[in-house]
Specification:
The protein is about 80% helix and about 0% strand. It is mostly helical. Helix 2 packs across helix 3 and helix 7 runs antiparallel to helix 8. The N and C termini lie far apart (about 60 Å).
């Protein structure tokens, strides 16, 4: 015989199943959208040419170089670049939600945050691999290290933030408009504490 389950326990169980189901739906939807679901009428060929000729892309050198390496491994196809774009955005989700999990130890809120981020990337409509996708992992890592440095300042964290700013600068130069003020805030806060 099974023990009695309280009505509130059933509601929590159903909510957990719905949350996990939404997360899995978001992943499937994201994968479908990045591979076969979106229109091909975008500037993907321009981005592919930037990746092939990455030395001629000084503003987005690292993003273009990463695309070039990916294309050498997986082929010079637009579908390969779309998959790389999806991986970049999902890795940024994993970086930020991983830190959120480390701080909160609440898998429900972490999973909800990941689901919202995935839906946001999908609704925003980013499907092609470009300098935004190439830089987003570095931006997510810088954000995580900045929050970590504010919570527990260490000189090595400030150094990692500086390295990430450099990666952001060579991945997508305009993103330094976000990265440098954040880095300055981390350094000022770190020196005061």
């Amino acid at each position: 015989l099974m023990g009695k389950v309280s009505p509130s326990g059933n509601k929590k169980y159903i909510a957990d199943i719905l949350l996990v189901g939404m997360f899995l739906f978001a992943l499937v939807w994201c994968f479908w959208y990045y591979t076969i679901g979106a229109t091909w009428w975008q500037d993907e060929t321009y981005q592919a040419l930037l990746c092939i000729h990455y030395l001629h892309s000084p503003v987005t050198f690292l993003s273009a170089w990463m695309g070039n390496v990916w294309m050498k491994i997986f082929g010079e196809q637009l579908l390969a670049l779309r998959i790389l774009s999806g991986i970049c955005y999902l890795s940024s989700t994993a970086i930020t939600t991983g830190y959120f999990w480390r701080i909160t130890h609440n898998w429900r809120w972490t999973l909800l945050l990941a689901t919202v981020m995935i839906f946001t990337f999908r609704i925003y409509g980013v499907t092609i691999y470009g300098w935004d996708a190439g830089a987003i992992g570095f931006i997510a890592a810088l954000s995580v290290f900045a929050f970590s440095c504010v919570a527990n300042p260490r000189i090595w964290k400030i150094m990692v933030c500086g390295i990430l700013c450099a990666f952001i600068g060579v991945s997508r130069l305009p993103s330094l408009g976000f990265a440098l003020p954040l880095m300055l805030g981390v350094v000022v806060y770190g020196w005061r504490h």
